[in-house]
Predict the 3D structure of the following.
Amino acid sequence: MEIRPILSALLRNKTGAILVALQVALSLAILANALHIVSERRHVSSRPTGVADEHAVFSIDVRNLMSGGPEQMLATQKREAEVIRAVPGVVAVANVNQIPLSQSGWNNSVAVDRKQVDETAPSSFYFSPDSLVKTWGLKLVEGRDFLPGEYVDVNTNTNDLPHHVIVTKALAEKMWPGVPATGKNMYFGTGEDAIEVRVVGVVERLQTQNAEVTPRGEYSSIAPMRRYGDFAGAKYTVRAEPGQRERVIREVEAALRKASPTPIILETTTLDQHRKDRYRADMALSWMLVTVSVLLLLITASGIVGMASLWVTQRRKQIGVRRALGARKVDILRYFITENFMITSAGVVGGVLLGVALNQLLVSKLEMARLPLEYLVSGGVIFWLLGVIAVYGPAWRAASISPALATRSA
């Protein structure tokens, strides 16, 4: 089929063609970037925390309504940990100050030199008198876990901190790029008041409580200590046997209430729930963008169908004459499909350029990843197919017009 007559016809009636091409271009640019954002959000929300079996882990906050002095609080925490540990199905338990993805907790500035004015990096600060490496199944990639003699109990009325620390691989790489971190000294804080600690181990991954999208989301450190004296309660993290989590939760709560001589308030949250709460907004955004993308496709298809139907009506006599002169149905059908393919192609080219420009804006303003080329290529293929499918119905009706009827009614 000759392309030139089709192009000449489009140039004579270019308003409709331009509108359809613009609609395709805008839809492609928005669709490609929207699906890229959805993919990024879903990738972020599925990042591993570093905990070996997230589905088996939960945390339980215990608040004692009646409590004594600091020493009694310390004894209560030790007793509660033993009560939890004795429940059948509990693999490990640790007294801990915060949980990954919980969106609240402790942070510290860390530095490689006491003389620094600015921090080297921010760090999520975990501490526990029990092995979090064992409780959470963290993977040591360098060094060792804490030794029994390195765990300390710290009264909040003092300024003490342990002298050993475990850091994540991401934090170690930030502080000492390209060299082993084990045996290095680091500082909590900066200046003369900075507290010096020695790195004894590096874990592959442990997300922060906020799980930021940037590498900061894995800047975490673990100290071997228990704090007591400022709050009549404690937080425990528990790993249950696979498939036993819900039963273990019920039995742990019952055991704690039974063993406590004073009233207590318990709040239990699974790590799965923390993940769901942390990424609730991201999932809502993803579904909204998916909905917008589907609506854009439907609107674009409707526009193509409407414009093709209008062109069929306007060219009714022309189609009848061509049929009378011997044009077959397939020739009429091919004409309209080719015409629409040309319009869609112009829109796809414009959409690719517009999509790249929109992504550049998002990269500069929102620090998003660059749009991979395959999103634009896949989007272009989708709109080409959509154009063919959308125009097929009107084109088939045009090809089915009786030559006698078309020329008589025109």
